[in-house]
Design goal:
By secondary structure, this protein is an alpha/beta fold. Helix content is 20%, strand content 30%.
Length: 205
């Protein structure tokens, strides 16, 4: 197996592999351009997102700056919004549903490293650097709001209709329909009709 195939399979791989380095470099050059573009250059921003992302639905809006490892492993649904300073280190699949709002400085981070220090160390083998890591996919459902500064760790699934509180560190799955927050992030309570604001303020859809 190539190092890329190992990475996609969730196995330990060498992140210094030349093929992987070339893929990361291509995406980072595109995102360097994306991050420099002005508000008057939205068409070019969309062209870059078309090229970088694995797939996206209608109305994809990402504020620069954005950082990604590969891009080609990230899929987002319709009506996706990510605020400033987003990080998606997509060494494996990141799947995001429809109507998802992501606040500023949110990190979505599938990469994992061995716990044993000697397996984690950077080393030189046959004159080349090696560094072992592996990834765990992340799934974010529909109608999710992830507030400012949250960290979504590898292997996590967030259900539909969830709110993740600001600064949370999500290390375990979150079921649908909950407000969840904290470090570690835990489901705190169900979202109910008592949380509705439109009727109380006379707002009609």
């Amino acid at each position: 197996m190539t190092e890329y195939e190992k990475m996609k399979a969730g196995l330990l791989y060498n992140c210094f592999d030349e093929e992987l380095a070339d893929k990361r470099l291509k995406v980072r050059k595109l995102l360097e351009e994306f991050n420099r573009l002005t508000m008057d250059e939205e068409d070019r921003k969309q062209e870059i997102l078309d090229e970088v992302l694995k797939s996206h639905g209608k109305n994809t809006w990402i504020e620069p700056p954005l950082r990604m490892d590969y891009g080609c492993h990230t899929s987002v649904g319709d009506n996706f919004y990510m605020n400033f300073d987003g990080i998606i280190l997509d060494v494996c699949d990141v799947t995001i549903g429809d109507n998802v709002l992501i606040g500023p400085r949110v990190s979505i981070v599938p990469p994992m490293h061995p716990l044993v220090a000697e397996e984690r160390k950077t080393r030189v083998v046959d004159g080349k650097y090696k560094d072992s890591e592996y990834g765990k996919p992340i799934v974010i459902g529909n109608n999710v709001w992830i507030a400012t500064g949250a960290i979504i760790c590898g292997g996590v699934t967030i259900g539909d209709d969830v709110v993740i509180g600001a600064g949370s560190v999500v290390t375990r799955d979150i079921p649908s329909g909950y407000v969840a927050y904290g470090n570690p992030c835990k489901p705190r309570r169900k979202i109910t009709d008592a949380d509705r604001m439109f009727a109380a303020q006379g707002i009609k859809e």
